[in-house]
Write a structure and sequence with these properties.
30% strand, 31% helix, three-stranded mixed beta sheet, three-stranded antiparallel beta sheet, alpha+beta, globular, 4 helices, homodimer, DNA-binding
DNA sequence: CAAGTAGTTTAGATTAATTCTAAACTATTG
DNA sequence: CAATAGTTTAGAATTAATCTAAACTACTTG
């Protein structure tokens, strides 16, 4: 097994799989994002995190990469806050609690929640996605 | 009767009713916003609209007023776009179609759509609101 | 109804998130 | 291993939104 160094081969393969050139930055970001459980990040939070890990990646690249990952289907963007973009490593069918006081997201499994009665969209349009945001506050 | 001038008394009363001092700007904005059917505006779109009507209201005041109206329950803010805040004159129970290509909102009556199975929020938190956004695209 | 005052408006500066630019860099190809 | 097409980045630019503090006005009081 050699070094205790981070094993980036998974991230490398994942990038190859979606046709993204596995650059050092992208591999590092993918490693951090997809290592453990699902998570929600903002560009800023991710930048702080990787910077704290000693990785050098510019904020512009973080923004670029988050969008590229999203287009590639590796991430999903969650719109809950007018002031800040969140990205979710969970791209499956699910919804969110949004803790307005803290700016935190919590996943709600897609099979727990159901949206019924969505009307037929106006002519010429198709449903792209149905997003449910349960906004919660301190009681 | 008398002049054909805009009748602002409704707007005036509405502002009084929610405890907002009926200044010229607020009366003008309320008149424009609540005159006809329900509508969705952004600060910029509303600013352009009133400017086009020959009313002089600064953008800062538009922002202030939209928020004041929202706090007073006259408007509701809709979060669908990470880059732009929308305000809705319909404050009742309803949801939205969001036409991603055009940045347009269309109301979905609250009694047509149902969200079932919202889990109990984490301890210490209560549900403030459940928002459903049906994102639609050109077919 | 004059004048005080508390609440409002505003131009312009400021902030914050994000995107753009174009020059330097690097993974891949031939 | 050189060519090149795609990538990264610092820093400037953009955009929505907020802040500031000075000018203004609706409402109250004497």
């Amino acid at each position: 097994m050699g070094k205790a160094a981070r094993d980036n081969s998974k991230a490398f393969q994942r990038l190859r799989g979606v046709g993204l050139r596995p650059t050092r930055q992208r591999v590092d970001l993918a490693s951090v994002l997809f290592k453990g459980m699902d998570r929600h990040v903002t560009a800023e939070s991710l930048h702080e995190e990787v910077t704290g890990l000693g990785l050098k990646i510019s904020l512009a690249t973080i923004y670029n990469t988050l969008h590229q990952f999203t287009h590639a289907g590796l991430l999903r963007q969650v719109i809950v806050d007018a002031a800040r973009g969140y990205f979710d490593t969970n791209t499956g069918d699910h919804q969110h609690f949004f803790l307005e006081d803290e700016g935190t997201l919590i996943d709600i499994p897609g099979d727990e929640i159901t949206v019924a009665g969505v009307p037929v969209p106006p002519a010429g349009l198709t449903v792209d996605r149905v997003d449910v945001v349960v906004r919660v506050k301190r009681a």
